Amino acid sequence: MDDYEKKIFGILQEKFQPEKLQVKDVSGGCGSMFAILVEANAFKGLPMVKQHRLVNEVLKDEIKQWHGLQLRTKAV
């Protein structure tokens, strides 16, 4: 992971304490598009739309700078 991927990983790790977390820059290294997987207890009982909204809210300042986001979430 590069430094920016580590930053995103750290933000999500701190907020959700996920069982599984993956952050990958899929833009060829320029930091404009990410594929993120978050599997966390925090999502239990929430529909996927609400799970995604939680992640989007936590990353809103970062997402403003991106061209795209491939987000997968799952309750564990």
TrEMBL record:
Pfam families: BolA. InterPro entries: BolA (IPR002634), BolA-like_sf (IPR036065), Mt_Fe-S_assembly_factor (IPR052275). One of its GO terms (biological process) is protein maturation. SUPFAM superfamilies: BolA-like. GO terms for cellular component: mitochondrial matrix. Transmembrane segments: none annotated. PANTHER family: BOLA-LIKE PROTEIN 3. Belongs to the BolA/IbaG family. This is Bola-like protein.
